[in-house]
Design goal:
4-stranded parallel β-sheet, alpha/beta, homohexamer
Chain lengths: 246, 246, 246, 246, 246, 246
């Protein structure tokens, strides 16, 4: 009972199928005392494939973090590879908030000297590139590959996108000189384990990685620092559609 | 008539007084054929002092860019020093979109080998630092100073914040070895000219700088590239409060 | 009359034909109140294709800046893609001095997340690379391509070099994942507009970009900072061939 | 039983007291199914305060990793803030190997935008600086402070070193603008929790952090990549004192 | 007599044949007053092809530096391209200590704007990459090539490895746009002069380069700085197999 | 006779006194077979204290390199801390060309993990900073200090400037945590040896360092690479005052 902890896993898009995939991946690695609350915003974008989509998704992330706190969540995962709203969510939260891109990249550097990323549309490559720069991993990433299919192709049941991911991972292994591969989309979460086995190198899903990072921070008694620039937002009245965030 | 061009200057917060200040600064430098449309979102945050505020402000920026396009605006300025929603707005726009932090930093590197930034709250320093990194100017910035007053203190009519900005600029000139100073808040736009004169070095306001950058791009026949990752957002149905952005 | 402003555009090599091309490109974008004075040194190198050529050209640039000031020029453009003598010219000038490489690179980052450069001889690639580093744009440049023809091939009237530039731009668009292309030679100035149209992405000529940057700085009331390391040269007697620069 | 996992925590110096401290810190955060095996080399240096000490300690680390594998350890922690022998140990191990500097730095970036480090002797500062560069965190570290006492002062029972650490942490909080503090020595492991409470910001001990990272990697089914440059050492016969490592 | 100086060249692996090759290369360029003492550890690894090998080799290097000092060596060269134990050896030495990777890279930047590296096994590429980062030459290196043969293939008398090195150098010259090539293994020392002649560009052997660097430092009256973090190791009792290093 | 080699040491300013100082420093460390030819341009600037001065000095350097080659010089030193005209001179020369800033910085990284620079006027600091960036040593330099006296104060016979240099070196040793100090002006060349002794750490003069680098390159059979971007200047007719350089 009392020793159970609730971790909220937020799919920033509105796809229920993807929320399912993500929730499943989270539960598959969660600790015995962890309950996973997989959610997505009621309003927003059905998939996230650019900066515009990310800006909208960030609002959903913030609303969910607020709701999650009220529901007793002790930590939060942002389950989209662009980590939309990450620093904003950290301001709002007292517990840890970890993005799946961030988590996957950190984990990759612990098991290999360089990693490759396999993502969806070419236009999301720039997002990954900016994150590498912000997180400090520019020199740890050998290459970023796009399968050139939209995010939701991963949920169409045909397996075509999954097979493209697989092919790109095989190619990345052969050509990049990388020791690990990072899957660049929350919707690929369920592929990691099998690809790891098939390819014989770590293929890393950020959802699982982020859940373990949040659990780790909680076990260490660490939450988001409230000293300095991640302190709670300066109190001010939000108006209109944003009143919910007051 | 037909040779006039409309540039939209978006104050991402909801403060009408600051929108006035910004509009005035924009008009003061605009070219003879330029009309300035100074706007702010109807809903959002009264001031922007952190990542949370920025995430909310980004939505207002996007709504305004959409509205601006419909009103015939040929270019857009994002008039908050964090450049909230910049890349998302670029996806939405066909014309140029320039942020005031970006513009001020670019301009500073054209007139000095290094510059200092004077901003409002200490917690916004990290935002400036991330922008320096993203824009490539880490080595061009000697120091970032915060006056430790909230953004809206610039609009309280007392002049206290303005005097603090002035003091910090004087100190920065003396101590940083910088050749120019960048004012780190849209609400400081009306101070640049006088401080430039008093201090005897370029004190740069991003609002004016961004207006001139947009005008320059228009004169060069250049808009936001629609080839690659700043192309229009992938068509998808936005739901709920975001329907307005469809 | 009195509200007209003179901007000096300096072709650092001695080619009159190229000075013509550059002057034309400058005038094509100059504001209604701007007069363009396109000049080149009487003595120096007929084209600039390496560090040696640049060192010689820098002297011509300085002599022209001095002459330009005496003729009432309020700002100066250095119209060679290596920006030869840029910081030295800034020391000499009170108004703004902008190089065309610098201007084109800045502009490119305002309309795309990454750009490619198309230049002339392979041996000038290193010059572009050093400028990217100095200006902070290493991570914004996807690739630098050389057409492997000398600078003056652009002025031989055959159109061969122009066609090579065009082919390289098409190739760069296809392969680099860049949203914009920067033309890496003042002699390519007249190609930008047509290539922009043909390729469907911003193809940027630095001459036009630099003129607009200088106009922008002037409109903002900004000149080169005379506080610190761009102050006028320490007074000392120059001897021999350099007496002209006293 | 069978679901229990053994994690080996290697103190690279020969101090038994410090091995105790480190083992205690590891066990304090270890998961319910984790057994901690805290060890140190039989031969080597009593404390690690420079590159020479690190080179010697690396051999002890390798011997222990080899022994640990034979004892069934599924993962390994290198509990000295210089992470001596980290990449070499990764070659030797199949499971994950995590250094405490690495782990603490990673964790710090998840809870704050910048962190400070408090270490022992000034001469170890360069080691921390090199690790920041190797791991990609140069821009995330605001400052490195040294208390100017040798490592073993932390084990002399007087509490003087501990008080110095505390004072430096307080000073770092006040002056650096950091949101978190990283303790730069395995011998400080038992101070983190209390300092976190007293200072009101995350004070991070790498020992605990590394244990949680190893547990996380194990839960994710990830070990050190054996594809590429962290593969097992190329088979060759080691001679003399190194025969033990064959 | 008295004006002769002894420079110790340490082959960090135990291969006598390679020690011969290295000694010969050192003597070929040594000054008239320099005596070369080419040594290798009695115990350790027969070749160095990864971090594990390097960790072991570092001990041999330290033992040799200690011995060398006792024999009157005034400076030391570490003749393995990973520069194993470099900073540790500097702590131990009063005279200069120079690694061959370091020396070759420094020299390359003095004769070309960019260089390529040709090394042995692919798994050693990461070592070269880390050194480039540590030494500051990331932007000076165009590419790192591996011939995919083990180090000792250079000593098997067949000439196969030598021919592969030659082929790779030719390819690097053609494809990388580099002005110089650095040979990435001490065992390639005797190839530099001939390849320089054949290829018509500087092909740099680190052994010779390091000997000249040490001689240069000695002529300048400079040894390793004993102020700060390269001071002699903090005195402490080493135990067991390391007693020799006391 | 035939085995003697001539190295040309070029003082890029026109001060004969400084040329003397520099020549003396060069001869003090030159090898037994080396003849030093210390020269300065007949025309140019009496001292170099900014980018303008450097641009002029570069021409003198080129004229001297040309003359030096005709006089049989096998290598060249550019003896001003800004390394004016370095890459241009390399194009012109077949033998090695080394700048004193470059040489001093390289040498400093061989004897210490970080160094400080002591220079003359504050406005030259930016020049040193740009060189650090170009050479790759940004992270190896702890601080740059200016004594705030013009270059020629070093030649006024009063010793005031020398004492200021000494004081700044002492301060740098105490405050910067550096293991070595680089003297940032050719006119300080004769101070290095005594300051090294007095301060107990390497105080490095670039003139001596550059002479030894050139000698080293010659001994290694290496000259400036003529493959790629340092090849001889593209043949073209120089006009007017530059005819001498044809």
């Amino acid at each position: 009972m009392s020793n159970r902890q609730l971790i909220q896993v937020i799919n920033p898009n509105t796809s229920l199928a993807m929320t399912e995939t993500i929730g499943r991946a989270a539960r598959a690695v969660a600790g015995a005392n962890t309950d996973i609350l997989a959610v997505c915003p009621a309003q927003g974008v059905p998939s996230i494939e650019g900066h515009f989509d990310e800006a909208i998704a960030a609002i959903g992330v913030l609303e969910q973090v607020k709701a999650g706190r009220e529901q007793g969540a002790r930590g939060h995962v942002i389950a989209c590879f662009g980590d939309p709203g990450l620093l904003a969510a950290r301001e709002l939260a007292s517990g840890p908030v970890v993005g799946i891109a961030e988590a996957a990249m950190h984990v990759a550097t612990l098991v290999a000297t360089r990693f490759s990323i396999v993502t969806t549309l070419p236009r999301t490559v720039v997002i990954a590139r900016h994150l590498l720069q912000q997180y400090g991993f520019v020199h740890h990433c050998a290459a970023i590959h796009a399968i050139d299919l939209p995010v939701l192709a991963l949920e169409d049941g045909s397996g075509v996108a999954q097979e493209k991911v697989r092919q790109r991972c095989i190619q990345a292994k052969r050509e990049d000189g990388s020791g690990a591969i990072v899957l660049g989309c929350g919707g690929m979460a369920d592929l990691a384990q099998e690809l790891t086995r098939e390819l014989g190198l770590p293929v890393i899903d950020g959802v699982g990685a982020a859940v373990k990072m949040v659990e780790s921070l909680l076990a260490l008694g660490l939450g988001t620092s409230k000293h300095g620039d991640l302190d709670y937002p300066v109190a001010k009245r939000l108006s209109g559609q944003f009143e919910r965030l007051n």
